[in-house]
Amino acid sequence: MLTRRVLVCLDVRDGRVVKGARFVELRDIGDPAALAEHYEAEGADEIVFLDVSASADGRGTLLDTVRQTSERLFIPLTVGGGVRSVDDVGRALRAGADKVAINSAAVARPELLTESAAQFGRQCVVASIDARREGAAWLVWTHGARTRTELDAVAWAQECVARGAGEILLTSIDRDGARTGYDLALTRAVADTVPVPVIASGGAGTPSHLVSAIQAGGADAVLVAGIVHDGVHRVATCKDALRAAGMRVRAAA
User: Fold this and answer.
1) Considering only CA atoms, which of 127, 64, 122 is closest in space to residue 96?
2) What are phi and psi of 179, to 5 degrees?
3) Domain range spanning residue 101?
4) pLDDT value, residue 57
5) Which residue is catalytic, options 11, 31, 176, 220?
6) pLDDT higher than threshold 90 for residue 129
């Protein structure tokens, strides 16, 4: 039986963790290194560190903040935001990242996924896909959900894997921060068409939503943010729900 993972997302802006809804109205949550350490102690399987303004601001990832965060962790750390080249991927890995999430730059130049996988291994390469529903399909958005593309999210996920991505971080822009549950149709559409793990993101409001993302949505892992940042639910409670549903989860350290 696969071990199901619960990941905690730290959206970082100007060195501080922030959270909003649908990528806007961001509010300060706290220090990323301290929060990452706290969530590891609560049982998080991985931390996802996303520099949410790097691409839109045209700058690189805040590597000093990444380094400070990674030094306090024993669980895997995925870093994204502002990654534009293979050199950027290497710098993030040297700063302590275990995996690097690539979004806007991969859309602009898909070869970046292939080059990164060739140099560092596909297990290090995460294709981060922000999708918004339009009619019967979902379109990919970039630059922190500010820029609409004509890419179909499901087809783009397939291309990302073909080009070397070892994992898909799939975020529903429509559900982000809404706490009404993950977009199960989107998650299932992608999970059914790619052979790599899919992380469901955007919309977690209750532990039962995490269960649904895996059972109904076909996700391999689930990402949470606001519900744990605000103390609505704890990581341990989320994992208890998965365990109660018959899933295998890692015990807290």
Assistant:
1) 64
2) 60, 30
3) 3-249
4) 67
5) 11
6) yes
Give 58's Cβ-side CA count (13 Å radius). Answer: 0
Whether 98 has a pLDDT exceeding 90, the answer reads yes
Most confident of 7-16, 21-30, 71-80: 71-80
Give the count of domains, the chain: 1
Q: For the purposes of burial, counting CB atoms within 10 Å of the CB of 179, is it exposed (0-12), middle (13-18) or buried (19 or more)?
A: middle
- Identify the residue with better confidence: 66 or 24: 66
Q: What is the CATH number of the domain that holds 222?
A: 3.20.20.70
Catalytic residue among 88, 130, 183, 220: 130
Nearest of 102, 99, 101 to residue 73 by alpha carbon: 99
User: In this structure, what token pair is assigned to residue 68?
Assistant: 């400070």
| pLDDT recorded at residue 27 | 82
**Would residue 130 show up in a list of annotated catalytic residues for this protein?**
yes
Side chain identity at residue 234, one-letter code: R
Distance (Å, rounded) from C-alpha 159 to C-alpha 245? 33
Q: Tell me the chain's radius of gyration from C-alpha atoms.
A: 16
Spatial contact of 144 and 119, defined as CB atoms under 8 Å apart: no
As to burial, measured by CB atoms within 10 angstroms (0-12 exposed, 13-18 middle, 19+ buried), residue 2 is exposed
- 45 is an active site residue: no
Handedness of CA 202, 204, 210, 212 (dihedral sign): negative
What's the token pair of residue 69?
């965060």
User: Are the C-beta atoms of 131 and 164 separated by less than 8 Å?
Assistant: no
